[in-house]
Every structure is written in C-alpha cells, then in structure tokens.
Backbone:
C-alpha cells in the first residue's frame, strides 16, 4: 500500500483507538495523520509526472506546506480561477479537494501544537472523514487538465 | 500597506450574511458560532463552530453532513472572495458539547 494510504488508515484507526474515552493524543495524532495523508497523496500525484522514477522522492521534497495552502485557497476565488468552459462537476470536485487540503493543514497545526484546544471524537472524526472523502474525490479527476494544473501550482510560488 | 479584510471592516453586513446562510442549514445543525481572527499562517480567517444533532454526528453520516454544511456556508457567504477571510469549520455532537459545556460553542 502507498504511504498516503497507510497514513489515512492510521488516522482512521487512531480516531477509534479508545472507543469510550478517546485520548487527546489519539485524536490529535489522527488529525495530523489525516493531513499528512492528503499532503503525501497530492505530492505523489504531482511527482508521478516526472519520468525518472528514481528521482521522484527527491522532487517531492520541493513541496512547501505554505505554498500548497496558498495555492489551494486561491483556487476558491472565481475571479482568479473562473474555470470558464470547464466541466462543472470536475471544477467542484477539484475545489473540494483543495478546500479540504487548506482546512486540514490548519487543523493539523492546532492538533500538533495547541494544547489549549480540546478535541472531541466528532471534531477529529470529521477531519479524518474529510480526508477520506478527498481521496475518493481526487481519484476520478486526477488526469483532468485543471487537476494537473493544480498539482503544478502546489509547488510554484506565486509571484506578485 | 497592509490590507484589512472587508470582513473586519463591514462586520454588521457580514453578520447579516452569516445569519442568512445559517437559516439554510437545516435541522442537523443545532447551533452555529463563529469568530474572526487569524489562522496559523497569519491570514485573516473566520472560524465556524457547529454543533450537530447526535444522529447527524454518526460516523456513517458525518462526512455527508459536514460536507453539506460547510458547502452551504462557503457558497452563501463566499468568505474568501467577498470578505477576505479563510473559512475553517469545526463540528461537535450535541451530547459532546453538553458534556464539555465550552462557552465558545454554547
């Protein structure tokens, strides 16, 4: 199984680890794993376009969390990305994946660093399920032109 | 010069837009609270805290319900395009909130 699939599985298992009284450590690690699952899925999809297979992992190191988040947020702005003439179903799916990525990154930051935030199972599970859904949403659109353009935008810093 | 998001400047108008959007959420959303602030990267943001019915919080329904609610709030308010705010969504079940009784969610 690919690393991103393992991470998603780990997130689901952690969120259910203690059925009655979930530990904060389990819920917080679940949210973090869910983010990294989507992070690594998108990177693996982007670098899969690199024909030299042995260099793909090294290329993956070029991706930066902040640039990926900014690109994902920009996609939501219809003025910057009107997607004129594109299949509306594909556009909606792509926006959903990008939205989930930005959302999960923020939640991951809180889960990893903020000891003042208490997580309930529903809060953590909602994030994990959103990652699971993003995986499913991505699959049928992964070869669409706008999806591939999104992957490129994840590694390119926007210049003003 | 630093830009102040429209959402911070015209808060009364934003409050009215949010109230309108919340009315479209349906019975699965028991309560919606929100606050304005900045996210971990310093971007202006709006943080929604949504209490769901216990039935809507069931694992087999959760992804559908939270996806639908977030989409309604996103599409109706357009927080990023219209207000310069990145939206974030947190969900709790009614029974979880009753046990915790967090004022931010009440």
Residues:
């Amino acid at each position: 199984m690919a690393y991103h699939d393992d991470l998603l599985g780990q997130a689901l298992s952690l969120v259910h680890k203690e059925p009655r009284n979930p530990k904060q450590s389990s819920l917080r690690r679940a949210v973090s794993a869910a983010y990294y699952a989507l992070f690594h899925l998108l990177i693996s999809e982007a670098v899969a376009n690199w024909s030299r297979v042995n260099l793909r992992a090294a290329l993956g190191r070029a991706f930066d969390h902040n640039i990926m988040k900014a690109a994902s947020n920009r996609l939501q702005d219809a003025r910057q990305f009107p997607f004129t003439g594109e299949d509306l179903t594909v556009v909606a799916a792509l926006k959903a994946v990008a939205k989930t990525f930005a959302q999960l990154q923020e939640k991951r930051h809180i889960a990893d660093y903020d000891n003042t935030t208490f997580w309930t199972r529903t809060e953590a599970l909602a994030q994990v399920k959103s990652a699971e859904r993003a995986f499913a949403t991505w699959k049928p659109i992964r070869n669409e032109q706008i999806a591939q353009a999104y992957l490129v935008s994840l590694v390119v810093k926007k210049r003003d | 010069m630093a830009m102040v998001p429209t959402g911070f400047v015209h808060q009364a108008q934003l409050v009215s837009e949010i109230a309108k959007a919340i009315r479209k959420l349906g019975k699965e959303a028991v309560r919606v609270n929100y606050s304005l602030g900045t996210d971990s990267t310093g971007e202006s943001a709006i943080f929604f805290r949504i209490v769901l019915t216990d039935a809507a919080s069931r694992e087999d329904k959760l992804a559908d319900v939270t996806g639908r609610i977030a989409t309604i709030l996103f599409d109706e308010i357009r927080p990023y395009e219209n207000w310069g705010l990145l939206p974030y969504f947190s969900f709790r079940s009614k029974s979880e909130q009753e046990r915790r009784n967090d004022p931010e969610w009440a």
About this structure: Chain B touches chain A through 27 residues (CB under 8 Å). Chain B has one domain: 6-92.
